[in-house]
Each structure stands twice: as C-alpha cells, then as structure tokens.
Amino acid sequence: MLFWILLVYLVVAFFFPVVGWLAFICMIAPVALSVFRGRYWCGNYCPRGSFYDRVISKISRHKTIPPFLRLVPFRIFMVLFIFAMFGVQMYLAWGDWAKMGGVFWNIIFVTTLVGIVLGYLYSPRAWCTFCPMGSLSAWVASRKAKPSFENIHVADSCVLCKKCAKVCPMQLKPYEAKGVEAGMMDPDCIKCGVCIPKCPKGSITMRR
C-alpha cells in the first residue's frame, strides 16, 4: 500500500514546497538499486507504481500498451525531455530551497497525471514502460551480469498457457523464459512476482 506515500507527498509538498525534495529519493534509488537487482524498485518500492497497481487498475480499460512507448528512441527522448525541463526549472529556482522543492513536486505531479491518463486508456503501468528513471534502471541492469539478479525462472513443466503474460503489469511474456537457465532476461521485468501465483502448474519461481 505504498501509494499512500505518494498521496501524502503530493498534499504536504503542495503546501510546504521544501518537502518536495523527498522526491529526490525516488529519482536516485531506482537506478542505484538496479545495479544489484534490476528494476526491483519499480515492482516493490515505487509509491507511484503502487498507486497505479492499487487504484488506477480499478478504472483502467486494460488495453495493450502501444508498442512505440517501448521503443528505445522514444524512451531516450523522454529521458532527455524530462531532464531538460527539470534542469531549466531548477536553474530558474536556484538558491531558493522551497522553489527548488517545488520543481520536484511539479515533475512528480505532472508525470503522475500523464500516468493516470495512460493507465486509464491502456494499462495501469503504461507510464512505467517509458518512465525516465525506469528506463535508466533497465539500461543499467542490461549492462550488468543479470544471471546474478533474482530473476523469474520458468520450469519445463510450463504448458505455455500464457496466464502469466495476462497478469504481467508490464505486459511481458514470462513463459518465453521456459527452460532458460538464466531466467527471464528482459530488463523491464519489475520483479513484482505477480505471475508466480497465477501459474496453474507452479512452474514459475523467482530466484538467482
């Protein structure tokens, strides 16, 4: 129920902008943790991700996420665009800690709204497919020795019913890792484990 952190943050930081600096944690932590565990933060600690899973999923149309949102060029553009906007606003507010905190609040508020719209139109985690910090985390993870991470493993007992893909919040295909010794190597797997209890054969586990 981490989404309460997001809601409290947005309310408190609106009245006390300096509190906006707390968002710095959610900007650094995902990338730092990805060195050791891939996009684990996104599926287990991210308050906004929790908000999408717990709240937006109840109103979402649950449609296929547009493929172009996953394209590397688009994700690079989003990283550059968000950081450029953030950098300009920080430059203009430089020296005033409250205004600088307000810049963090603005970024979190606007991107959350975008995520809500996309979550309703497509899938709750649509924003997560190109979230700048999520993308950076995925790229960092893809350059590490991923077999050392806790990965989704699919045993040979899998019957390819594809129920795991139907519940994956990132709309990935865990069953494609059937028999792969290193496990699921997609860097966008957020290690949420939602697919594990949905497997009728108990073929899915998360381990190193």
Describe this protein's structure:
There is one protein chain. It contains eight helices and two strands. It has 208 residues and is mainly α. The protein has a two-stranded antiparallel ribbon.
Q: What value does the Rg take, in angstroms?
A: 18 Å
- What structural class do the secondary elements suggest? mainly alpha
Described by strand count, sense and barrel closure, the largest sheet is:
2 strands, antiparallel
| End-to-end C-alpha gap | 27 Å
Report strand order across the widest sheet.
Answer: 1-2
Helix content: 40-55%
- What does the average pLDDT come to? 94
Shape: elongated
SS elements, strand count? 2
The percent range for strand residues is under 5%
Order of helices and strands: HHHHHHHEHE
Summarize the structure.
With 208 residues, the chain is mainly alpha-helical. The protein has helices at 3-15, 23-37, 40-44, 47-54, 72-93, 97-121, 132-142, 163-167, and strands at 151-154, 204-207.
Layout: helices, strands, pairs:
Layout (H helix, E strand, L loop, with lengths): L2 H13 L7 H15 L2 H5 L2 H8 L17 H22 L3 H25 L10 H11 L8 E4 L8 H5 L36 E4 L1
Antiparallel strand pairs: 1-2
Helix pairs in contact: 1-4, 2-7, 5-6, 5-7
